[in-house]
Amino acid sequence: MNLDRIAKLVENEMLEVEREFERNLASEVTLIPSIGRYVLMSGGKRIRPLLLILSSKLAGYEGESMVPLAAIMEFIHTATLLHDDVVDSAVLRRGQDSANNVWGNEASVLVGDFLFSKSFSLMTSHGNMRVLKAVSDATTLMAEGEVLQLLNTCDLEVDEDKYLEVVVGKTAVLLAAACEVGGILGGIEEEKITALETFGMELGIAFQLTDDCLDYVASEEEFGKTVGTDLAEGKITMPLIHTLGFCSDEERSRVADIIEKEDLPSEDLVFVMELIAKHDGIEATKRKALERVSKAKAQLDLFGPSPYKDALLGVADYVVVRRL
After folding, report:
1. Domain that residue 297 falls in
2. Residue 226, pLDDT above cutoff 90
3. What distance in Å separates the CA atoms of residue 239 and residue 8, rounded to the nearest whole number?
4. Which of the 8 DSSP states describes residue 97?
5. Percent with pLDDT over 90 in the chain
6. What pLDDT shows up at residue 205?
7. For all residues of the chain together, what is the average pLDDT?
Protein backbone atom coordinates (compact mmCIF):
# COMPACT_ATOMS: atom_id res chain seq x y z
CA MET A 1 0.00 0.00 0.00
CA ASN A 2 1.42 3.37 -1.05
CA LEU A 3 1.37 5.89 1.80
CA ASP A 4 1.22 8.86 -0.57
CA ARG A 5 -1.99 7.50 -2.09
CA ILE A 6 -3.50 7.08 1.36
CA ALA A 7 -2.52 10.63 2.31
CA LYS A 8 -4.29 11.95 -0.81
CA LEU A 9 -7.60 11.28 0.96
CA VAL A 10 -6.76 14.04 3.45
CA GLU A 11 -4.40 16.02 1.23
CA ASN A 12 -5.76 19.44 2.20
CA GLU A 13 -5.43 18.71 5.89
CA MET A 14 -1.89 17.38 5.49
CA LEU A 15 -0.92 20.52 3.58
CA GLU A 16 -2.33 22.55 6.45
CA VAL A 17 -0.16 20.54 8.83
CA GLU A 18 2.91 21.63 6.87
CA ARG A 19 1.81 25.27 7.12
CA GLU A 20 1.27 24.79 10.83
CA PHE A 21 4.91 23.72 11.17
CA GLU A 22 6.04 27.01 9.69
CA ARG A 23 3.81 29.05 11.98
CA ASN A 24 4.85 27.15 15.11
CA LEU A 25 8.58 27.29 14.37
CA ALA A 26 8.58 31.07 14.36
CA SER A 27 11.13 32.45 16.81
CA GLU A 28 13.45 35.44 17.05
CA VAL A 29 16.16 32.95 18.01
CA THR A 30 17.10 32.04 14.44
CA LEU A 31 18.76 28.74 15.35
CA ILE A 32 15.41 27.31 16.43
CA PRO A 33 13.62 27.55 13.04
CA SER A 34 16.86 26.58 11.26
CA ILE A 35 17.24 23.28 13.10
CA GLY A 36 13.49 22.70 13.34
CA ARG A 37 12.99 23.07 9.57
CA TYR A 38 16.08 20.98 8.85
CA VAL A 39 14.69 17.98 10.73
CA LEU A 40 10.99 18.46 9.97
CA MET A 41 11.60 18.85 6.25
CA SER A 42 14.08 15.98 5.93
CA GLY A 43 11.66 13.49 4.43
CA GLY A 44 9.61 12.10 7.31
CA LYS A 45 6.46 10.18 6.35
CA ARG A 46 4.18 12.17 8.70
CA ILE A 47 2.56 8.95 9.94
CA ARG A 48 1.60 10.42 13.32
CA PRO A 49 -0.24 13.45 11.91
CA LEU A 50 -1.84 11.21 9.29
CA LEU A 51 -3.09 8.80 11.94
CA LEU A 52 -4.57 11.59 14.01
CA ILE A 53 -6.39 13.11 11.04
CA LEU A 54 -7.72 9.79 9.74
CA SER A 55 -8.82 8.73 13.25
CA SER A 56 -10.53 12.08 13.79
CA LYS A 57 -12.43 11.79 10.55
CA LEU A 58 -13.34 8.18 11.23
CA ALA A 59 -14.76 9.45 14.54
CA GLY A 60 -16.78 12.07 12.67
CA TYR A 61 -14.75 15.12 13.73
CA GLU A 62 -14.24 18.01 11.30
CA GLY A 63 -13.40 20.80 13.76
CA GLU A 64 -10.51 23.26 13.85
CA SER A 65 -8.40 21.45 16.47
CA MET A 66 -7.56 18.49 14.25
CA VAL A 67 -4.77 20.05 12.15
CA PRO A 68 -2.97 21.86 15.01
CA LEU A 69 -3.00 18.69 17.13
CA ALA A 70 -1.74 16.64 14.18
CA ALA A 71 1.16 19.07 13.81
CA ILE A 72 1.88 18.80 17.53
CA MET A 73 2.30 15.03 17.17
CA GLU A 74 5.05 15.58 14.61
CA PHE A 75 6.66 18.27 16.77
CA ILE A 76 6.88 15.81 19.68
CA HIS A 77 8.25 13.10 17.40
CA THR A 78 10.85 15.52 16.00
CA ALA A 79 11.91 16.52 19.51
CA THR A 80 12.56 12.87 20.34
CA LEU A 81 14.60 12.43 17.16
CA LEU A 82 16.82 15.37 18.11
CA HIS A 83 17.39 13.94 21.59
CA ASP A 84 17.83 10.35 20.36
CA ASP A 85 20.53 11.33 17.88
CA VAL A 86 22.50 13.02 20.65
CA VAL A 87 22.17 9.99 22.94
CA ASP A 88 23.16 7.65 20.09
CA SER A 89 25.93 9.92 18.71
CA ALA A 90 24.21 9.55 15.33
CA VAL A 91 25.76 11.00 12.19
CA LEU A 92 22.88 10.28 9.77
CA ARG A 93 19.13 10.79 9.96
CA ARG A 94 16.86 10.05 6.97
CA GLY A 95 19.84 9.92 4.64
CA GLN A 96 21.32 13.30 5.57
CA ASP A 97 23.67 14.56 8.27
CA SER A 98 21.93 14.45 11.64
CA ALA A 99 21.24 17.82 13.29
CA ASN A 100 23.72 17.13 16.09
CA ASN A 101 26.36 16.37 13.46
CA VAL A 102 25.71 19.76 11.83
CA TRP A 103 25.03 22.07 14.80
CA GLY A 104 26.38 20.11 17.75
CA ASN A 105 24.81 18.25 20.67
CA GLU A 106 23.99 21.30 22.77
CA ALA A 107 21.96 23.01 20.05
CA SER A 108 20.11 19.79 19.18
CA VAL A 109 19.10 19.11 22.77
CA LEU A 110 17.94 22.68 23.36
CA VAL A 111 15.91 22.88 20.15
CA GLY A 112 14.39 19.51 21.04
CA ASP A 113 13.42 21.04 24.39
CA PHE A 114 11.85 23.98 22.56
CA LEU A 115 9.74 21.67 20.38
CA PHE A 116 8.52 19.75 23.45
CA SER A 117 7.66 22.95 25.31
CA LYS A 118 6.01 24.51 22.28
CA SER A 119 3.90 21.38 21.78
CA PHE A 120 2.36 21.58 25.24
CA SER A 121 1.91 25.34 24.98
CA LEU A 122 -0.04 24.83 21.74
CA MET A 123 -2.14 22.08 23.29
CA THR A 124 -3.51 24.51 25.87
CA SER A 125 -5.07 26.38 22.94
CA HIS A 126 -6.22 23.46 20.81
CA GLY A 127 -6.86 20.57 23.16
CA ASN A 128 -9.08 19.80 26.13
CA MET A 129 -7.88 18.30 29.41
CA ARG A 130 -8.43 14.76 28.18
CA VAL A 131 -6.32 15.37 25.08
CA LEU A 132 -3.64 16.99 27.23
CA LYS A 133 -3.62 13.98 29.58
CA ALA A 134 -3.42 11.47 26.71
CA VAL A 135 -0.43 13.23 25.17
CA SER A 136 1.36 14.00 28.44
CA ASP A 137 0.97 10.36 29.56
CA ALA A 138 2.42 9.28 26.21
CA THR A 139 5.46 11.56 26.47
CA THR A 140 6.13 10.33 30.02
CA LEU A 141 6.14 6.74 28.77
CA MET A 142 8.39 7.76 25.89
CA ALA A 143 10.98 9.14 28.30
CA GLU A 144 10.77 5.97 30.40
CA GLY A 145 11.20 3.87 27.26
CA GLU A 146 14.36 5.75 26.32
CA VAL A 147 15.83 5.28 29.80
CA LEU A 148 14.92 1.58 29.75
CA GLN A 149 16.61 1.20 26.37
CA LEU A 150 19.73 2.80 27.83
CA LEU A 151 19.66 0.34 30.74
CA ASN A 152 19.30 -2.57 28.31
CA THR A 153 22.32 -1.56 26.22
CA CYS A 154 24.75 -4.44 25.63
CA ASP A 155 22.67 -6.75 27.81
CA LEU A 156 22.32 -10.18 26.16
CA GLU A 157 19.83 -11.19 28.85
CA VAL A 158 17.18 -8.84 27.42
CA ASP A 159 14.23 -11.03 26.44
CA GLU A 160 11.25 -10.36 24.20
CA ASP A 161 9.02 -9.05 27.00
CA LYS A 162 11.62 -6.63 28.28
CA TYR A 163 12.36 -5.44 24.77
CA LEU A 164 8.68 -4.87 24.01
CA GLU A 165 8.53 -2.58 27.05
CA VAL A 166 11.10 -0.41 25.29
CA VAL A 167 9.23 -0.56 21.98
CA VAL A 168 5.94 0.48 23.58
CA GLY A 169 7.53 3.52 25.19
CA LYS A 170 9.99 4.47 22.50
CA THR A 171 7.72 4.17 19.45
CA ALA A 172 4.25 2.75 19.92
CA VAL A 173 2.79 4.99 22.59
CA LEU A 174 2.90 8.16 20.46
CA LEU A 175 1.13 6.44 17.56
CA ALA A 176 -1.44 5.18 20.06
CA ALA A 177 -1.93 8.69 21.43
CA ALA A 178 -2.40 10.12 17.92
CA CYS A 179 -5.23 7.65 17.24
CA GLU A 180 -6.72 8.08 20.71
CA VAL A 181 -6.81 11.87 20.33
CA GLY A 182 -8.74 11.45 17.08
CA GLY A 183 -11.37 9.44 18.92
CA ILE A 184 -11.51 11.95 21.78
CA LEU A 185 -12.05 14.82 19.35
CA GLY A 186 -14.90 12.94 17.73
CA GLY A 187 -16.61 12.31 21.06
CA ILE A 188 -17.27 8.67 20.19
CA GLU A 189 -18.02 5.83 22.61
CA GLU A 190 -15.28 4.81 25.04
CA GLU A 191 -15.07 1.36 23.49
CA LYS A 192 -14.23 2.89 20.12
CA ILE A 193 -11.71 5.34 21.58
CA THR A 194 -9.96 2.39 23.25
CA ALA A 195 -10.06 0.48 19.96
CA LEU A 196 -8.37 3.38 18.14
CA GLU A 197 -5.72 3.65 20.87
CA THR A 198 -5.05 -0.10 20.68
CA PHE A 199 -4.91 0.11 16.89
CA GLY A 200 -2.16 2.73 17.19
CA MET A 201 -0.30 0.76 19.85
CA GLU A 202 -0.21 -2.48 17.86
CA LEU A 203 0.71 -0.52 14.74
CA GLY A 204 3.56 1.18 16.58
CA ILE A 205 4.97 -2.14 17.76
CA ALA A 206 4.81 -3.51 14.21
CA PHE A 207 6.50 -0.33 12.96
CA GLN A 208 9.44 -0.74 15.32
CA LEU A 209 9.81 -4.46 14.64
CA THR A 210 10.00 -3.66 10.93
CA ASP A 211 12.65 -1.04 11.69
CA ASP A 212 14.58 -3.71 13.58
CA CYS A 213 14.65 -5.84 10.42
CA LEU A 214 15.56 -2.94 8.13
CA ASP A 215 18.55 -2.10 10.31
CA TYR A 216 20.07 -5.42 9.25
CA VAL A 217 18.85 -5.86 5.68
CA ALA A 218 18.19 -2.45 4.04
CA SER A 219 20.80 -0.44 2.20
CA GLU A 220 21.89 2.92 3.60
CA GLU A 221 20.14 4.66 0.67
CA GLU A 222 16.86 2.88 1.50
CA PHE A 223 16.99 3.15 5.27
CA GLY A 224 18.46 6.62 5.62
CA LYS A 225 21.06 5.55 8.17
CA THR A 226 24.02 3.21 8.36
CA VAL A 227 23.12 -0.49 8.30
CA GLY A 228 23.97 -2.18 11.60
CA THR A 229 23.53 1.02 13.61
CA ASP A 230 21.55 -0.72 16.36
CA LEU A 231 24.27 -3.34 16.79
CA ALA A 232 27.01 -0.71 16.80
CA GLU A 233 25.14 1.12 19.57
CA GLY A 234 24.77 -2.06 21.63
CA LYS A 235 21.00 -2.24 21.13
CA ILE A 236 19.61 -5.74 21.41
CA THR A 237 16.63 -5.73 19.05
CA MET A 238 14.18 -8.46 18.11
CA PRO A 239 16.13 -10.19 15.28
CA LEU A 240 19.09 -10.63 17.63
CA ILE A 241 16.93 -11.57 20.64
CA HIS A 242 15.37 -14.36 18.57
CA THR A 243 18.78 -15.46 17.29
CA LEU A 244 20.41 -15.59 20.72
CA GLY A 245 17.82 -18.17 21.76
CA PHE A 246 19.34 -20.60 19.24
CA CYS A 247 23.04 -19.73 19.48
CA SER A 248 25.78 -22.01 20.70
CA ASP A 249 27.80 -20.87 23.72
CA GLU A 250 30.66 -19.98 21.39
CA GLU A 251 28.43 -17.87 19.10
CA ARG A 252 26.84 -16.11 22.07
CA SER A 253 30.27 -15.33 23.53
CA ARG A 254 31.41 -13.74 20.27
CA VAL A 255 28.24 -11.64 20.04
CA ALA A 256 28.88 -10.46 23.61
CA ASP A 257 32.40 -9.38 22.63
CA ILE A 258 31.13 -7.59 19.51
CA ILE A 259 28.50 -5.46 21.22
CA GLU A 260 30.96 -4.34 23.88
CA LYS A 261 33.32 -2.84 21.28
CA GLU A 262 33.31 0.88 20.60
CA ASP A 263 33.58 0.28 16.85
CA LEU A 264 31.86 -2.27 14.64
CA PRO A 265 34.30 -3.73 12.10
CA SER A 266 32.67 -5.00 8.92
CA GLU A 267 33.68 -8.60 9.66
CA ASP A 268 31.82 -8.43 13.00
CA LEU A 269 28.71 -7.03 11.35
CA VAL A 270 28.86 -9.76 8.71
CA PHE A 271 29.22 -12.42 11.41
CA VAL A 272 26.13 -11.21 13.28
CA MET A 273 24.10 -10.80 10.08
CA GLU A 274 25.01 -14.34 8.99
CA LEU A 275 24.12 -15.64 12.45
CA ILE A 276 20.72 -13.89 12.29
CA ALA A 277 20.13 -15.36 8.82
CA LYS A 278 21.14 -18.83 10.04
CA HIS A 279 18.53 -18.75 12.81
CA ASP A 280 15.82 -16.92 10.79
CA GLY A 281 15.90 -13.86 13.03
CA ILE A 282 14.60 -11.54 10.32
CA GLU A 283 11.76 -13.81 9.24
CA ALA A 284 10.74 -14.47 12.85
CA THR A 285 10.62 -10.73 13.53
CA LYS A 286 8.62 -10.10 10.37
CA ARG A 287 6.08 -12.69 11.51
CA LYS A 288 5.74 -10.94 14.85
CA ALA A 289 5.22 -7.62 13.05
CA LEU A 290 2.51 -9.16 10.86
CA GLU A 291 0.78 -10.58 13.94
CA ARG A 292 0.72 -7.10 15.46
CA VAL A 293 -0.72 -5.63 12.27
CA SER A 294 -3.48 -8.23 12.28
CA LYS A 295 -4.32 -7.33 15.88
CA ALA A 296 -4.34 -3.64 14.95
CA LYS A 297 -6.66 -4.11 11.99
CA ALA A 298 -9.08 -6.20 14.08
CA GLN A 299 -9.64 -3.17 16.34
CA LEU A 300 -11.34 -1.34 13.47
CA ASP A 301 -14.07 -4.00 13.22
CA LEU A 302 -16.08 -1.80 15.61
CA PHE A 303 -16.36 0.85 12.90
CA GLY A 304 -18.66 0.73 9.89
CA PRO A 305 -17.52 1.02 6.26
CA SER A 306 -15.69 4.28 5.59
CA PRO A 307 -12.91 5.56 3.32
CA TYR A 308 -11.10 6.64 6.49
CA LYS A 309 -11.30 3.13 7.93
CA ASP A 310 -9.92 1.77 4.64
CA ALA A 311 -7.12 4.33 4.81
CA LEU A 312 -6.18 3.31 8.36
CA LEU A 313 -6.13 -0.33 7.26
CA GLY A 314 -3.86 0.75 4.40
CA VAL A 315 -1.47 2.47 6.81
CA ALA A 316 -1.33 -0.79 8.79
CA ASP A 317 -0.37 -2.72 5.65
CA TYR A 318 2.23 -0.08 4.71
CA VAL A 319 4.03 -0.43 8.05
CA VAL A 320 5.24 -3.95 7.26
CA VAL A 321 6.00 -3.56 3.55
CA ARG A 322 7.82 -0.21 3.63
CA ARG A 323 11.46 0.13 2.75
CA LEU A 324 11.94 3.32 4.72
Report:
1. 3-321
2. no
3. 34
4. E
5. 81
6. 98
7. 92
Considering its fold, how many domains does the chain have in total? 1
Nearest alpha carbon to residue 126 among 182, 65, 177, 73 = 65
Angle CA 234–139–199, to nearest 5: 90
CATH code of the domain covering residue 157: 1.10.600.10
What digits encode the pLDDT tens for the residues 237-295? 999 999 999 999 999 999 999 999 888 899 999 999 999 999 999 999 999 999 999 99
pLDDT for 42 equals 82
6, pLDDT greater than 90: yes
Q: Give the integer Cα–Cα distance in Å for 45 and 310.
A: 18
From the list 143, 137, 136, the residue with the least C-alpha distance to 119 is: 136
Residue 11 has pLDDT above 80, yes or no: yes
Contact (Cβ atoms closer than 8 angstroms) between residue 272 and residue 255: yes
Helices within 25-159 (DSSP H only): 31-40, 47-58, 66-87, 99-103, 105-126, 129-152
How far apart CA 91 and CA 259 sit, in angstroms, is 19
Which are the contacts of 96, defined by CB distance < 8 A and separation ≥ 6? 42, 224
